[in-house]
Amino acid sequence: MADYISVADLKSRLGNKAMVQLTNPDNPRATDINEEVANDAIGDGRGIIDGYISKRTPLPLKHVSRFVKTLNKDLSVYYLKSKLNGDKSTSTEKLHDDAIKHLQEFADGDIDLGLDIPTIQDNTGQQATSNTAEITSQPRQNTRQSLGKVT
Predict the structure, then answer these.
(1) Second label for 137, Cα 20 to 30 Å away, from 68, 73, 117, 143?
(2) Which long-range contacts (CB under 8 A, 24 or more apart) does 85-88 make?
(3) Residue 137: inside a domain
(4) Alpha helix locations (H) across the chain?
(5) In-domain check, residue 61
(6) CB 78 within 8 A of CB 95
């Protein structure tokens, strides 16, 4: 499953120096971005996003909106700063809290995140978001009448 963002996307947001520092919390002399750590943070963010998005639309997404990418960047930055580096600043916490708030609003049907949501026609002919499962089966083969037991 492809990620919504790449390490390069995070690097463009934070800069190379910050990415090197954040992805190498135990090695202050590091000069290269630790791609494994960065990809773990990206994957953690995607996992949170998928958990909320899957409540209203099937995964994987056919189109990843800019808003979803931004949320993935915010959550990835949060994980790099807070979880790995102990940054509990208000701005870091706000990245996480705002992203979760938007995802919850999406799951509740209040916002759309720029995603294509499958729709169905309701009784009035209006489009309604599909949030239910539909089960179909073959017609019943044996009935009481066909088995000779009429009650």
Answers:
(1) 117
(2) 85/21, 85/22, 85/25
(3) no
(4) 7-14, 16-23, 35-53, 66-78, 90-107
(5) yes
(6) yes
Residue 127 confidence (pLDDT) above 50 = no
**By residue range, what is the domain housing residue 29?**
7-119
Q: Identity (one letter) of the amino acid at 54? A: S
| Structural domain total, the chain | 1
Per-residue confidence (pLDDT) for residue 142, from 0 to 100:
77
For 72-84, the pLDDT digits (tens) are 999 999 999 987 7
Residue 68 · residue 115 · CB < 8 Å: yes
Q: Which of 67-71, 75-79, 146-150 has the lowest mean pLDDT?
A: 146-150
Q: What is the pLDDT of residues 2-40, one digit of tens each?
A: 789 999 999 999 999 999 999 999 999 999 999 999 999
Q: How many Cβ atoms sit within 10 Å of the Cβ of residue 81?
A: 23
pTM for this predicted structure? 0.74
CB 144 within 8 A of CB 151: yes
Question: Is 55 inside any structural domain?
Answer: yes
140 found inside a domain: no
CB 78 within 8 A of CB 96: yes
Q: CA nearest 55: which of 2, 114, 119, 132?
A: 132
